[in-house]
User: Which sequence fits this backbone?
């Protein structure tokens, strides 16, 4: 269940729900399939296989899953049916169909076709890290991440989660790293980046499989281009692409982590728990170090309690973990 992308939000430590509170809130908003004239449906599902609860808890982190189901009804299909209806009316009644009548026909056709439309669904995982005060979402698409946050706010109002604000703007820090030819401590430059000219209709330069310390990169920066994406490797354990909106794309947990997880056990339940536990620890440390590399959080978001608690607390959280299966 390794995350593939990452958007993260700052949580208010005083408002982070307990496992029982979160479970009770999400149980009241379960996923229900689209029916009738519904265009879409959203709700919470079990994040871990055969368990019935909508929350999986381990190491002080609470994993949840939001499922969305939506009807697929292309505009071209609706238009084709409307045109057929219009042609039929004009042939039979020998008159032109006006704009308002066409709009009414379009609504009628849509209502007729919607119950028979194809349905597609997706599932979005996220977890609350109470020790570090982060909400981690397995998506680098702002609209999807915000939709999940909105559903959590509906379940647990007001649920104060906010996008992190760092002292250094990500694009400014990434530009400085490439200008210096060196990433901050704990990180190393990978082999891809994107640079943009800030002017209207400015040039966009995308580099892949390239040495990011090359003079060519610095020449682009010297002409005023800003870095908007850069590939990084964190402690030889996680590879990703950092964006200027502070999202992590194409997350790849390297072999050393995959091997650590696989050694936890042969059955699916043990493997799921081991993978989740390992992932949350790695992502938590990665995000903390990344935020530090960007000068830390702005004062309003910083909190002394944001750092991981002592090992004894983590051990207590582990003792409360629920052993549940994972359903791919």
Assistant:
């Amino acid at each position: 269940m390794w995350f593939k992308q990452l958007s993260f939000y700052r949580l208010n430590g005083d408002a982070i729900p307990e496992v029982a509170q979160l479970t009770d809130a999400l149980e009241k908003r379960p996923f229900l399939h689209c029916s009738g004239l519904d265009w879409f449906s959203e709700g919470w599902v079990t994040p871990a296989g055969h368990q019935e609860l909508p929350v999986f808890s381990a190491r002080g982190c609470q994993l949840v899953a939001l499922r969305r189901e939506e009807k697929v009804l292309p505009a071209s299909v609706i238009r084709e049916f409307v045109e057929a209806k219009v042609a039929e009316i004009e042939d039979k009644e020998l008159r032109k169909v006006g704009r308002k009548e066409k709009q009414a026909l379009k609504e009628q056709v849509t209502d007729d076709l919607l119950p028979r439309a194809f349905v597609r669904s997706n599932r979005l995982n996220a977890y609350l890290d109470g020790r570090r005060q982060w909400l981690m979402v397995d998506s680098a698409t702002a609209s999807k991440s915000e939709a999940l946050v909105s559903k959590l706010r509906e379940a647990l109002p007001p649920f104060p989660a906010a996008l992190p604000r760092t002292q250094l703007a990500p694009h400014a820090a990434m530009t400085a790293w490439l200008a210096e030819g060196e990433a901050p401590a704990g990180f190393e430059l990978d082999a891809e980046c994107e640079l943009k000219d800030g002017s209207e209709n400015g040039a966009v330069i995308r580099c892949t499989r390239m040495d990011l310390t090359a003079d060519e990169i610095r020449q682009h920066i010297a002409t005023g281009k800003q870095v908007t994406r850069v590939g990084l490797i964190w402690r030889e354990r996680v590879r990703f692409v950092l964006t200027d909106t502070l999202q992590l794309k194409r997350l790849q947990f390297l072999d050393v982590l995959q091997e650590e997880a696989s050694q936890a056990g042969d059955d699916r339940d043990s493997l799921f728990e081991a993978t989740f536990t390992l992932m949350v620890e790695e992502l938590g440390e990665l995000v903390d170090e990344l935020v530090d590399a960007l000068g830390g959080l702005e004062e309003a978001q910083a909190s002394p309690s944001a750092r991981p608690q002592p090992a004894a607390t983590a051990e207590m959280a582990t003792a409360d973990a629920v052993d549940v299966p994972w359903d791919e």
Remarks:
- Residues 139 and 145 are 6 Å apart (CA to CA).
- The chain has nine helices and twelve strands.
- The longest strand covers residues 61-72.
- Residues 268-293 form the longest helix (26 residues).
